[in-house]
Amino acid sequence: MKKVYIVGIGVGNKCFMHQKSIVSIEKSECLIGTKRMLDTFSYLNKETFESISAKEIYDYINNDNHNIFSVLVSGDVGFYSISKKLTEMLMENEQIEIENIAAVSSVQYFCSKLNLSWDGMKLVSAHGRNINIISNVMFNKKVFLLTGGEFKPNDICEILTSKGLGNLLVSVGENLSYENERIIEDSASNIAKMNFESLAVMIIQNHEALDLSVGLNSIKDSEFITGSSPMTKSEVRTISVSKLNLKNDSVVYDIGAGTGSVSIETALRLSNGSVYAIEKNEDAILLIKKNIEKFKAYNIEIIKNVAPDGLEILPKPDSVFIGGSSGNLNKIIEAILKKNPFVNLVINTITLENLNESLLCMEKYKFNDVEIINVAISKAKKAGSYNMMMGQNPIYIISGRGSGSN
To answer: Can you give the pTM of this predicted structure?
Structure first.
């Protein structure tokens, strides 16, 4: 049997490693990790193998003649670490015994330096991963980020500032635990103007973060800021949004967004997703911006265009709502199916002509689970001492899912 210790070396400085880690490293015959990590223990004169690839490390351990190994990993073994993948691989080999050894993680160290509790903090990594920064900040009062690659702290703060969140308090930590440690606390708008190394950590605080339960509520029509642009009414909106089959990380297009009512209700259900509101009318775009600010739905991106123009540069949609097509329905559906052949599609229309076109498109592009709903809403209105039911225009709600056959 071979013994493999996967040792978290913590924030970096050896003085923050506990005795169990040191003892395990000292009794190992071979040390594996990056050059920086291995140099810390060069005084032990151990055999070393330099790698950060789980597959390379597994193959080396499997084929090497040594019996006791220590794989050195940055931070804690359970926090965005190579340990996860390496442990899974090593566990498949019955001739290898594994032990993961915990360490002081960057989030623990950084919060202690800031005298800040990390209870309830959302922990995410932007290092080599695609993450939705805005939605995380929208729905969490404290977000801890491991930065890296194209997402340096100043880049992330530029995104926050562009979304109207430049006033948020941001803390950035570089070279934590080392002599050249640097910790800065300032507004996101100010940090956006600074320069940082790619591998840093940051904490974003949003004291006005939304509770996740906000997405469970239906918004009254009277709560929206409205003008002359069309707005999907509350009951129709509720049905239509439910037919989008949303997940918390969905990417959604709202085509012909109008006042943005569908965009808002959708965005508030996406704790890790985003909405692209496509609208051609300048007055409507101003209304959408005002409603975004009112409801703090910062995970909405406004696209001024006439669909399908502009769709090609957007991320692949999981769901698409079409409230207005400007006569381009066939071209819009063709464009979104090219991006995602299995897209969830919901169309609202009030005319029989558009209903007919919608059904022809559903048939042409072989949509599955096609459903047609006619909604006629009447609401009571006071007339003296009486209540009279006042009818709204009947709405057709057509929904379906791409079959992947196009």
So the answer is: 0.88
Q: 21 vs 12, 104, 125, 401, CA distance in Å? A: 13, 11, 25, 53
Sign, CA torsion 382/385/387/388:
negative
| Cβ–Cβ < 8 Å for 305, 257 | no
Beta pairing partners, 301 = 276
| Rounded average pLDDT over 140-146 | 95
The reply to whether 250 and 386 lie within a common domain is yes
Structural domains counted in the chain: 3
Within this chain, do residues 134 and 185 fall inside the same structural domain, yes or no?
yes
pLDDT in tens, 335-379: 999 999 999 999 999 999 999 999 999 999 999 999 999 999 988
Residue type, 211: D
Q: CA-to-CA distance for 247 and 339, rounded, in angstroms?
A: 18
Cα separation of 284 and 298, whole Å? 17
CATH code of residue 63: 3.40.1010.10
The amino acid occupying position 200 is A
Looking at 51, 72, 103, which one is the last position of a domain? Answer: 103
Scanning 261-377, the segments in alpha helix (DSSP H) are 261-267, 282-295, 329-339, 352-364
What is the rounded CA–CA span in Å between residue 25 and residue 43?
Answer: 12
- Does 406 fall in a domain? no
**Predicted confidence band of residue 229 (pLDDT cuts 50, 70, 90):** confident
**274 SS3 class:** strand
Do residues 254 and 384 both lie within one domain? yes
Q: Which of 179, 205, 231 is the last residue of a domain?
A: 205
Q: What letter does residue 151 receive in the DSSP assignment?
A: B
Residue 372, strand partner residues:
398
**Whole-angstrom distance, CA of residue 6 vs CA of residue 9:** 10
Is the same domain home to 388 and 299?
yes
